[in-house]
Amino acid sequence: xxxxxxxxxxxxxxxxxxxxxxxxxxxxxxxxxxxxxxxxxxxxxxxxxxxxxxxxxxxxxxxxxxxxxxxxxxxxxxxxxxxxxxxxxxxxxxxxxxxxxxxxxxxxxxxxxxxxxxxxxxxxxxxxxxxxxxxxxxxx
Length: 140
What we know:
A 4-stranded mixed β-sheet has the order 1-5-3-4, covered by helices on one side. The chain has helices at residues 21-34, 54-62, 93-102, and strands at residues 4-9, 36-37, 41-44, 50-52, 67-73, 80-84, 111-115, 124-125. It is globular. The protein has one domain (4-122): Conserved hypothetical protein from pyrococcus furiosus pfu- 392566-001, ParB domain (Alpha-Beta Complex). It is α+β, with helices and mostly antiparallel strands.
């Protein structure tokens, strides 16, 4: 399994888990201040389902990104593992994809995806993602 780095249009991507709005807001602020996304999200090749990085994705949407930095992986590869963060019934990769396609999301941090060999950081400037410039973060 050879992951491929891509900048993917936000319209292509599908989520399978809910996000914590407070965490999304904090992360969006941190990313905006840094001007860079340190870690790409992980995306399943073929289905465009986000496997890891739902909060980063939501934060980038909040910032107005048009593209998302992603490691695209073969989801069926044995190196890509699916577990749960908390005890519960087993979840299959097929169920993750089906729920993403149907918009029937799992609760926050239900699934835990890991890859046998660590993917490298790939800092990506917000300018490459189509994020509009913001002189100051909007205050509530």
